[in-house]
Design brief:
Helices cover 30% and strands 20% of the residues. The protein is an alpha/beta fold. Strand 7, helix 4 and strand 8 form a beta-alpha-beta unit. The longest helix has 20 residues. It is globular, with a radius of gyration of 16 Å. Its EC number is 3.1.2.22.
């Protein structure tokens, strides 16, 4: 499997990065859709050491959208019930693609790293909606511990199998979840159910889980959410 195409935003200071944040876009979007957020985060002095990597999902047919090909991390059959039938093969393929990008950061072979190696415990995997689902899956199944997962307006896929799929390295995983309470696409309850599942079924310590509700926010992001993400990053990948 070749590496996914990515947009990379290195530290604006020109210094070598010491941490990485992946941002995975949602269905039908591209890396450009989240580049403004990455730029905003990169301009914070407390995150001047962070490298931002925005992968692009492959183009593939999506059942939910009448089979039309579009950028998609996996096929979505329905959003009416997250416990319904899922594209397991597509989910695992995209999670593996992200883990391959993580490995490239660890080995110093990723685009623009110039041999700089960034250990997995200095890497955060984040994403919005469909991208957030893959971020959770990749963070829970990566064979070495990542610093954290940022899961925005999303849900945890493969819940019936995740306990057997997850790696023991994720036992102390840090997770930030953000969700608008009027989301008409990925319902707010899917986010709260995911939080409860991580805590109760996967036994991730409560102190490692943060769930933020954004009143009146639809399937989107807001300035307060971006500030909350920044604070989470300052905690899990602080400047060294």
């Amino acid at each position: 499997m070749s590496l996914l195409k990515t947009m990379v935003i290195n530290p604006i200071s020109g210094a070598k990065p010491t941490a990485t944040l992946f941002i995975l876009h949602g269905l039908g979007d591209s890396s450009a859709g989240w580049s403004d957020v990455a730029q905003m985060l990169s301009q914070r002095p407390s995150l001047a050491h962070v490298r931002f990597v925005l992968p692009n999902a492959p183009i593939q047919p999506v059942t939910l959208n009448m089979g039309m090909p579009m950028p998609s991390w996996f096929d979505i059959l329905s959003l009416d019930d997250i416990s319904g039938k899922e594209d397991e093969a597509g989910l695992l393929k995209s999670a593996d693609a992200i883990k391959k990008l993580i490995n490239a950061e660890e080995e110093g072979t990723a685009s623009g790293l110039d041999g700089t190696k960034i250990a997995s415990h200095r890497i955060v995997v984040g994403g919005f909606s469909q991208g957030g689902a893959i971020s959770l899956l990749a963070g829970l199944t990566h064979p070495s511990p990542v610093a954290g997962v940022v899961a925005l307006s999303t849900w945890l896929p493969l819940r019936a199998k995740i306990a057997s799929l997850r790696h023991q390295a994720s036992s102390n995983l840090r997770v930030f979840q953000g969700h608008g309470d009027v989301d008409p696409v990925v319902r707010y309850e899917y986010g709260t159910r995911t939080h409860d599942f991580l805590k109760n079924d996967l036994a991730i310590p409560d102190k490692n889980l943060s769930f933020k509700t954004y009143p009146g926010m639809p399937h989107s992001a807001c300035p307060q959410e971006i500030r909350d993400i920044a604070e989470f990053l300052e905690e899990v990948i602080p400047a060294q």
